[in-house]
Amino acid sequence: MTSDEARVDRLAGTIDRLRREIDEARAAADGRALVELAKGVLVERLRCGPAQAAEQLALLADQAGTTQLELAVDIINEVSGDGLTEPPPLPDPAAAVRFRTAESALLHADDTETVARSLLAHALAPLGATAVAIWSAGKDSSLTLAGNAGFTDGEAGRWRYVPPGVATAARHALTERETVWITSLDESGLPSIGSGLPGRVAVPAGTGGRITGVLEICWPHPLEPQPQSVHRQVEALAELCATTLDGSAPEVHADHLLSAPSELTDLADGLLDPALVLGPEVSPDGMLTDFRVHHVNARFVDIAGRPRAAVAGKLLLEAYPLAAAEGNLFDKIEHAYATGEPYRTERMTLAALVDEVPLTVTASVSVTRHGALVLVVWRVHDETARLANLLQHAQRLGRVGGFEEEPDTGGVVWNSQLYALYGLPPTADPVPLAKITAYAHPDDVPALNGFVRNVLHHHQPASAAFRLQRADGVTRHVRVIAEPVLDSFDVLIAVRGAYQDVSAQHWTEVALSATQDQLAITAQEAAERNKLTLQLQQVIMPPTHPTIDAFGLRVAVRYRPAAQEELVGGDWYDAVVLPSKQILLSVGDITGHGIEGATGMVVLRNALRGLAATGAGPGQLLTWLNLVAHHLSNNIMATALCGLYDPHTRVLRWARAGHLPPVLIRNERGELLPMLGGLLLGALADVSYQEGEVLLEPGDTLLLYTDGLVERRDVPLDDCLDRLCETVTGPRRDLEELLDHLLDTSEANTGDDTCIVGVQLT
């Protein structure tokens, strides 16, 4: 070891020693603080001085055979009743001392980081926990890692801040305001700090109904259900953490919150809507029970008709007892106060009792927390104003502009939509109905003259469509509707009506007409294309194939095109005697239909027939055919089944590329051959295919087919294959008759092509 390394080791040892001495000094200081606190309890209970209390504590400890610190903790537990030192799951005489020491450290700690380390060392490590995180909650429901222990610096740095909306274990505890016990973090699906620590609990940290953060405790193993004593301990520790997270916040008591802070009251008074400033009412045991109205702004109008003075200073549920029922306003206020998350809604039902009769109104409501207070603002929806607003939106969306004019005075009134339609500023003079032709296309003037004459002279409702030519050069297609208003003597006193901009509809009709013409051309081209595809398919794949009868083997084929012409072209089959006297049997199904499917089928069918002349086995043939599909064609993908029958040995060697397995009918029973391994053609460049063999016996029948024979949209494929085996089970039939029977009784409903190749050994 070099001298530099020795100096570094000595320095590290010195740092560790000093750290231990600091921790021991802190523990001793915390222990002394607990002893002094117990002395204070004795002073109050025994009505004695500090010296007498110290002597009494020492005497009692000596008589009980315990230390003064342990006795001090027992005294504190007796008078506190806070559940902090409930017995842990395993007997530990020093557990109470550790928990009270942790409490003392929390109350005297300078920062939250020290609090986290003390919690872990004194209170949580005995429970098996190995890490702790203390989160501070922001007003926007974000989370900031205020303190941690047991995590690496890198892990803590990555989780320094959690923005709003990210669902973590701590966020769940904050928004739901309840303790979250997680057996395994991975199984919960919630991300959080310390991903390698599966067991954990997240506890809201707060007092008096106000949550200031979250205490998250981690275990290195999946967490088993914990006893109620541990539940109470972690909740008590979370309450202690709340004091460190919000130590600067003022206490909330009704006796000194008789008036809200001036800044918040000024804000409420500056609003144009009714507003209440609420403060929490906390019971002696620290539970939030209600909110008190500390300020009512000048715009306040009580929905029950009471004056402001009748509401100010009252409890919320006393002034509005139905706030906990109709619209659940109280719950929203409580949630905003607890989490700091604002609540806003455009529609909420507010209720009040008037002579024991509930009165309800609909209002927009906003609830926000400001320090220890809550600001509630609402705006009651006026029905007339709401309907007018809806009408204005409807007119805007429908591009409708209304007008009214009085012929006697010449007065004309337009709404804002009509000015926009004419392209005129709101300060321009409206255009009377009699001068409408001055803004119309010349070809539309005769029709408009008739429209004006019917309304103004014949006093009849009328409508007309015309092209509005604006001063800015824009032409709009418009429909105008008008009706006369007559007095009891049939004298015209007013004309009311509306303009509607139908330009979009007009151009849509023009585009639709052009599209219909194009569709007609496309449909004709598609029909011709489908006809060509069908003709090509029928030439290459006729519905029947001449029966092959050679070497004691009969081979028959059936082919049924797709029910819809545009779907034809996917399936193919082949049965041919090779120069080697072996018989090639194959079926396949191309992905895609139409001319592309038909041409792809031709490529693969002819390629396989040519490759089979090499004498290679079915597995090798499919390997080569896969290269053809992948490299030498236009992205063809297909399933295929290839078989070679040797008449001398009666052995059929076969392989499959993603295709359905053959069905062997033997002894009047149909069974599927094994599902050999083999990827569909064209998916990957380098694929190998497993081969299988079957020895055909006299009387055996083998069926090769495509999915169009068996597949149903509403039935699992395995059930469809079982149904096929049941169909062919029974007394032996002639091969031709069997294939016809399978086509006639097929329950497939996909409308796809169907190929069947039947092989029967006589």
Secondary structure: elements and pairs:
Elements: H1 3-46, H2 50-64, H3 68-80, H4 95-108, H5 112-124, E1 131-137, E2 143-149, H6 153-158, E3 161-162, H7 169-176, E4 180-182, H8 185-188, E5 199-207, E6 210-219, H9 228-245, H10 262-269, E7 275-282, E8 288-296, H11 316-319, H12 329-339, E9 343-354, E10 357-370, E11 373-380, H13 383-397, E12 400-406, E13 411-414, H14 416-422, H15 445-456, E14 462-469, E15 475-486, E16 492-501, H16 503-540, E17 544-550, E18 553-560, E19 571-577, E20 583-590, H17 594-612, H18 618-631, E21 638-646, E22 651-657, E23 663-666, E24 669-672, E25 691-695, E26 701-705, H19 717-728, H20 735-745, E27 754-761
Antiparallel strand pairs: 1-2, 1-6, 2-3, 4-5, 5-6, 7-8, 7-11, 9-10, 10-11, 12-13, 12-16, 14-15, 15-16, 17-18, 18-27, 19-20, 20-21, 21-22, 22-25, 23-24, 23-26, 26-27
Helix pairs in contact: 1-2, 1-3, 1-4, 2-3, 4-5, 16-17, 17-18
